[in-house]
Design brief:
341 residues; globular; alpha/beta; Cytoplasmic GTPase/eEF2-like protein (Ribosomal biogenesis); two-stranded antiparallel sheet; single chain
């Protein structure tokens, strides 16, 4: 990406609708500063080859020496959203104020300040270490400040190169990680609901006493049903990223949905995206139809349905694993050329 001229940045700064404040939150050493480096490289501030080594936003000498972020740092980045349709023209432009926060428990106040300043957050989780103590703490901070987070499952390269997981094993591991993160969010939701219900009950009692007298027992009280589905991370909803900050790549399921929608004969990627996570499978005969587990079992038997490879693994993870195996492990130039093509 070419260097953005100062005049363009000044133009965006004058329009508040084009500005977004985004903080990066995670446990210590889960890859926040490396991710920041990778995002800085997209604006040609540093070389993409140096991303993860420079630790650009660790500007203090002691931060560089100790290899940890101790102070919140921010930088403005230019981002042009790809056109979503003909009405979008050339695509919308944004100025993203990226805030890199510490992950160590001793600097929790810095995280609180970053969350308070932000419109949204990138919540990083190391896929090898999983949900750690400070992960829960920064998630709580984002929850308290009402910051809308996106989950970034980082260091997938370690599953391939270090743990030697297969795509299917990694998929099951990711499902468990997302469930763990969502369990933390469910705890926050329940805590807030209990506090809110307690307040509502006290208010209802007070109103009842005013209307029926202090000694009258309250005979009417109803709990309100509330939908909590919007608080959880789910790849098919587009709020989960899979990637490797050190290698400079990440994807959402909608990226692969756009690639494969035409090949599967679908008129819109939006029809494929909800099927890209969970128990959905490609029909092995037609290669043009997506089946759920019940349909697959009806056509091919329960045993084959139990052993079938989910669509996400077939379309997403197998492609990523193929790149690493051919480029890093075996370095097969012929296969590399096919992958590039």
């Amino acid at each position: 990406m070419p260097v953005v001229p100062p005049a363009k940045l000044a133009e965006l700064q004058r329009n508040a609708q084009c500005i977004r404040n985004v903080c990066v939150l995670a446990h210590v050493d889960h890859g926040k500063t490396t991710l920041s480096d990778a995002l800085l490289a997209t604006n040609s501030i540093i070389s993409s080859k140096l991303a993860g080594k420079v630790r650009y936003l660790d500007s203090r000498e002691d931060e560089q020496e100790r290899g940890i972020t101790m102070e919140t740092s921010g930088i403005s980045l230019y981002y042009k959203l790809p056109p979503l349709g003909p009405a979008d023209g050339a695509g919308r432009e944004y100025l993203v104020n990226l805030i890199d926060s510490p992950g160590h428990v001793d600097f929790a106040s810095e995280v609180a300040s970053a969350a308070r300043l932000s419109d949204g957050a990138l919540m990083l989780v190391d896929v090898v270490e999983g949900v750690c103590t400070q992960t829960v703490s920064v998630m709580r901070q984002a929850w308290v400040e009402n910051v809308r987070p996106v989950l970034f499952l980082n260091k997938i390269d370690r599953l391939i190169m270090e743990l030697r997981m297969t795509p299917s094993e990694a998929y099951l591991h990711m499902q468990q990680l997302i469930e763990q993160v969502n369990a933390v969010l469910a705890g926050f939701w329940e805590g807030d609901r209990l506090a809110e219900d307690s307040r509502r009950l006290e208010a209802a009692k007070e109103k009842w006493r005013e209307e029926h007298g202090d000694d009258a027992p309250m005979t009417e009280w109803y709990l309100e049903e509330k939908d909590d589905s919007h608080i959880y991370f789910s790849p098919e909803q587009g709020n989960v990223l899979f990637g490797s900050a050190i290698d400079g790549w990440a994807f959402q399921v909608n990226h692969f949905a756009r690639i494969f929608a035409d090949k599967l004969g679908l008129d819109s990627p939006a029809r494929l995206q909800p099927l890209m996570w969970g128990d959905y499978f490609l029909d092995p005969k037609t290669k043009r139809r997506v089946l759920n587990r019940k349909q697959y079992a009806k056509l091919y038997g329960a045993a084959k349905a139990a052993a079938a490879t989910p669509l996400f693994v077939q379309l997403c993870f197998r492609s990523v694993w193929q790149v690493y195996e051919n480029v890093v492990v075996d370095h097969d130039q012929e296969k590399i050329d096919k992958v590039i093509e």
